[in-house]
Write a structure and sequence with these properties.
The complex is a heterotrimer of chains A (about 100), B (about 675) and C (about 170). Chain A is an all-alpha fold and about 100 residues long. Helix content of chain A is about 75%, strand content about 0%. Chain A contains three helices and no strands. The longest helix of chain A has about 30 residues, at about 60-90. With about 675 residues, chain B is mainly alpha-helical. Chain B is about 70% helix and about 5% strand. Chain B has helices spanning about 5-10, 10-25, 30-60, 90-115, 120-140, 145-160, 170-200, 215-225, 230-245, 255-260, 265-275, 275-285, 290, 300-325, 330-350, 350-380, 390-395, 395-410, 420-430, 440-460, 480-495, 505-510, 525-550, 560-565, 570-575, 580-650, 660-685, and strands spanning about 70-80, 80-90. Chain B has a two-stranded antiparallel ribbon with strand order 1-2. The longest helix of chain B is centred in the C-terminal third of the chain and has 73 residues, at about 580-650. Chain B starts with a helix and ends with a helix. In chain B, about 50% of the residues are buried. Chain C folds into two domains: about 1-85, Four Helix Bundle (Hemerythrin (Met), subunit A); about 125-170. Chain C has about 170 residues and is mostly helical. The chains are: A mainly alpha (about 100), B mainly alpha (about 675), C mainly alpha (about 170). The interface of B and C includes residues 660, 667, 668, 670 and 678 of B.
Chain lengths: ~100, ~675, ~170
């Protein structure tokens, strides 16, 4: 088990999340893709902490915990936004939510 | 005098009513009880503090230290020098503080009853409190500047209160008249203040030897002779007297005071009888050291001579006018003008104590008379014409009793009423005046007229039979109005006791000395003859008045006046107030209008020509500008604009509002960046 | 260091992620997402960060996944993607971008040999140590996170509240 293999796993998760966020039309699944990208970043924290010179400092772990808390907040707000959008536009299809077009 | 608590906290006296006014201003109109109790509570607090200050001065009488305590502080900095303000406590301030707060309190309480049905009750108490605050500020200030600030505030509240019923055109006009007329006097005061500040370098009255009212500064001012041959001290004193004359309704600036009776009666009592108009006299008393600098025993200075003549003339001619007035409040107003003239005369001939004594006694009995008149007006359903009254002694016994006391005090009925002692002191001083004896004769004749017109008024109002609308019988006023009247009546009698020749407490008090009981006071030269003469005059006036008006009372309101029957032309001239308003309309107003027309002509023909030329050239320039712009510059800009909007339209296709397309663009950009980075790092390695 | 366990969890999470984003049924997607999150949590535990792993499972597999299931149930899209099938060019460009990003990151990772290193001895990350640090040196971020969560909760509630004028229109 080496550091680069873990980082490759993280990169794969990130790419999968990005693909999901790009391809799926349902806003919830777009959010899921974003969550996966965030998790990929979280995995990086743990990986770098585990392979650092001073793992006893727990920096990565603490950062992960804060990141999880932020992600939880983001998920709650994001899903609330999706529900509000759904109620307003009667759809969760991101293609049809295009009020910002120029 | 060491700085005791009351001296350092003297500022609380004006600040309390000011706070009450501020809070009352924020109250909604419906909170009547809150506003009234606030104002009265604050006034009562001020009264207690004023009594505190008064006792403090009493305790220091005749001591080693001066009976004057001052507190000065820095206010504004101009360049390297500080503008200093301050307050002081001396016998003059103390006695005025007690008078104003006490009379004010009585009038505040009276107002509850008088203004009970007014929609703007809260506003009224707000203004009253503000007035009280400003007036108390005038009294305690130790700086001409601070005094001037409060002075103008007093003028403002006077304006607000005269115009309190601003829906009435006459009230609005009277308010404007009062404001503008006093402003003419204030202009003099302001000029005097500037001059004083320029010559003395300070505006503090007393400042441990370096104030303007102290010897060093006065000597400098007196030694400086101006271009017109009088000393700077005299000139400044005369300028300051202009302000005092405006405020105190002295001739020729008296015209606003009778009109000011358009305000509510408590206002007339508080402002235009007891306190504000007294501020002018107070100011003269305050700057008395300046007025009297270099005075010799029995002699006079230019400034004091002017004060004396103005006072004597005002006293006489206002009394003449009062004889022929029909409005109960207007009679009292002219009486006030006349009595203010008396006070000025007193200060001019006899010094501060003589004038101030009359001021204090007058404040009480004139407030009493005005409030009594208010009670009469209230009881007669807002009737102010004495021809339509009559016989009220049966309907309003309490008002009649106290009004009678006030009237006798004003007439100077011998021995038992305060007005006698204060008026006699003035006449006695006038009889000893070295310059001329004419002011004494003028004052004596005014005293005769005073007794006459007051008898005329009382006879028409209270005796005979009621001539008003018989369906609405007049009624006695409620206790909230009569109790302050009774209080004031008590003082109208008792106050005389503090200034008799036998026991001249008031004079000594103002001089900061302890009084001794001295029967020798009666043996002063000329005193007893003067007292006898003035008593005879009073009895003559009373008798004359009763003979003409009391013995055969008028039967109907339309009947002509007894005097009018005798000398119609004189009565008409006096009734029209000696045509002073018309004179001013013909001279001052016309001059003003002439100047305005001249200025208008100058504006239209001369300045307008210049302006028109400038305008024409500007228009021509702008025409050229327009041509250049539309043909040259505009075309270039239009081309630029259309190309910008075209490219914008092209680019706007990129923004179709779909988030995923944006995200994709970000991803592609990321890939391109990374590829570029690879390419760069490889090229570095290679 | 044991290779098998982390590899298993990594494979589990990647498989879950792929499933979560490719399945048609949204509920299945959510369940696959739970699997992916749990796999990551297991990976953290296997790497020695027990507390972080448990927090991951609690917060993501538990709370966030439940939230997503709720949202799926509230936002019922009937055959939305059948009626509007994904355009071929769109999906191709999306996959291409994702693959390109992966290749670019992987290229960086493999080109740097310093990253190819073994792990040092596992530290003993007790919960007590983490707690001490959190309540000690990191107290300010902790408080700020608490504030953020409160604000997020309030914001979510306000956003998800029924629109006032929605009834009228």
């Amino acid at each position: 088990m080496t550091l680069d293999s873990l980082l490759l796993v993280s990169a794969a998760l990130f790419a999968i999340g990005l693909a999901g966020a790009l391809l799926r039309r349902n806003a919830i699944l777009v959010l899921v893709g974003i969550e996966l990208m965030l998790n990929a970043a979280n995995l990086n924290f743990i990986a770098f902490w585990r392979f650092s010179a001073h793992p006893e400092a727990f920096t990565g772990v603490l950062f992960l915990l804060f990141s999880i808390a932020v992600a939880a907040a983001e998920a709650a707000v994001g899903l609330a936004l999706i529900i509000a959008i759904h109620r307003h536009y009667k759809t969760a299809n991101v293609d049809r939510i295009d009020r910002m077009k120029g | 005098m060491n700085a005791s608590w009351i001296v350092t906290h003297l500022w609380l006296i004006p600040v309390l009513p000011a706070l009450a006014a501020g809070i009352a201003a924020l109250l909604p109109q419906s909170r009547r009880i809150a506003a009234a109790s606030l104002a009265i509570g604050a006034m009562f607090g001020s009264l207690l503090l004023a009594l505190c200050a008064f006792t403090n001065v009493l305790m220091h009488l005749g001591g080693e230290e001066s009976a004057r305590a001052v507190v000065n502080f820095n206010w504004l900095q101009f360049g390297g020098s500080w503008l200093r303000l301050g307050w002081m406590l001396d016998p003059l301030t103390a006695v005025m503080l007690v008078m104003v707060t006490f009379v004010g309190l009585c009038i505040f309480i009276f107002s509850i009853g008088y203004m009970a049905h007014d929609a703007n009750f809260t506003r009224f108490f707000c203004f009253l409190s503000l007035f009280a605050a400003a007036m108390l500020g005038v009294l305690i200030s130790n700086s001409l500047l601070l005094l001037f600030i409060c002075w103008e505030l007093v003028g403002l509240t006077s304006y607000l209160l005269i115009g309190f019923w601003y829906q009435k055109p006459s009230a609005a006009a009277a308010a404007k008249k009062a404001f503008i007329t006093t402003r003419i006097g204030d202009l003099g005061l302001f000029a005097g203040m500037l001059w004083l500040s320029y010559s003395a370098g300070t505006l503090l009255f007393y400042d441990n030897g370096s104030g303007t009212m102290e010897h060093t500064a006065l000597a400098v001012l007196a030694s400086h002779i101006t271009a017109i041959g009088i000393s700077a001290a005299t000139a400044i004193a005369l300028l300051i007297f202009c302000g005092a004359a405006g405020k105190s309704g002295q001739f020729p600036l008296h015209v606003w005071l009778p009109d000011a009776m358009e305000g509510p009666t408590p206002v007339s009592a508080l402002i235009h009888a007891a306190t504000m108009v007294a501020a002018g006299v107070f100011l003269v008393a305050r700057v008395y050291p300046l007025m009297s600098f270099g005075i010799l025993a029995g002699g006079s200075t230019t400034a004091l001579t002017v004060v004396t003549w103005v006072g004597a003339f005002t006293a006489l001619f206002a009394a003449c006018i009062a004889v022929a007035q029909q409005d109960i409040k207007r009679i009292l107003a002219y009486s006030t003008v006349s009595q203010l003239g008396y006070m000025m005369l007193g200060i001019g001939v006899g010094g501060v104590a003589v004038g101030m004594f009359h001021l204090i006694t007058h404040a009480f009995f004139k407030a009493l008379l005005f409030l009594g008149a208010g009670s009469v007006i209230h009881g007669c359903h807002d009737e102010q014409d004495i021809r339509s009254m009559g016989g009220l002694r049966k309907y309003m016994p309490v008002t009649f009793a106290v009004y009678g006391i006030g009237m006798l005090a004003l007439c100077g009925f011998p021995l038992f009423f305060s007005g006698f002692w204060s008026k006699d002191a003035i006449l006695h001083s006038a009889s000893l005046w070295s310059v001329s004896r004419i002011p004494f004769y003028m004052g004596s004749f005014a005293a005769l007229l005073t007794a006459f017109y007051m008898t005329r008024q009382v006879a028409q109002v209270f005796f005979g039979k009621y001539r008003g609308d018989s369906h609405h019988a007049p009624h006695e006023s409620p206790a909230v109005m009569t109790v302050p009247l009774i209080l004031l009546a008590a003082f109208a009698i008792l106050l005389g006791g503090i200034g008799t020749p036998l026991w001249p407490w008031f004079t000594s008090f103002l001089h900061g000395e302890v009084t001794t009981f001295d029967a020798a006071g009666f043996y002063e030269p000329g005193l007893v003859p003067v007292m006898l003469t003035s008593s005879c005059i009073v009895f003559l006036g009373l008798g004359l008045g009763w003979w003409l008006y009391g013995s055969k009372p008028r039967q109907t309101a339309a009947e002509p006046d007894t005097l009018e029957v005798a000398t119609p032309w004189l009565f008409r001239v006096l009734g029209d107030r000696l045509y002073f308003d018309e004179l001013y309309a013909a001279t001052v107003f016309r001059l003003n209008a002439g100047l305005a027309i001249a200025a208008d002509w100058l504006d239209r023909s001369f300045w307008n020509g210049i302006v028109q030329t400038v305008i024409a050239s500007v228009i021509a320039l702008s025409e050229i500008n327009t041509t250049v712009e539309s043909s040259g510059i505009n075309a270039g800009f239009d081309g630029g604009c259309s190309s910008v909007s075209f490219s914008g339209r092209l680019l706007s296709h990129l923004q179709n509002g779909q988030v995923q397309r944006s995200l994709r663009a970000i991803g592609i950009a990321l890939v391109i960046l990374l590829l570029a980075w690879f390419a760069f790092s490889w090229s570095v390695k290679a | 260091m044991n290779f098998a366990l982390p590899a298993f969890f990594a494979a589990l999470s990647i498989a879950g992620a792929v499933a979560a984003l490719s399945l048609r049924n949204l509920v299945h997607c959510a369940l696959a997402l739970v699997l992916a999150f749990a796999g990551l949590g297991g990976l953290y535990v296997a790497l020695g960060a027990q507390f972080a792993g448990l927090a991951q499972i609690l917060v993501y597999s538990g709370a966030v996944a439940i939230l997503i299931v709720f949202a799926v149930l509230l936002v019922r899209e009937r055959d939305e993607e059948q009626r509007h099938p994904i355009r071929w060019s769109n999906s191709l460009s999306g996959i291409a971008v994702a693959v390109l990003v992966f290749i670019a990151i992987a290229r960086i990772l493999t080109s740097d040999s310093s990253l190819h290193r073994a792990a040092p001895a596992a530290p003993s990350a007790t919960i007590r140590d983490i707690g001490t640090m959190m309540m000690g040196a990191d107290i300010l971020p902790l408080e700020i996170i608490g504030l953020l969560l409160t604000a997020a909760m309030l914001g979510a509630v306000i956003l998800a509240l029924r629109e006032r004028n929605a009834v009228k229109s």
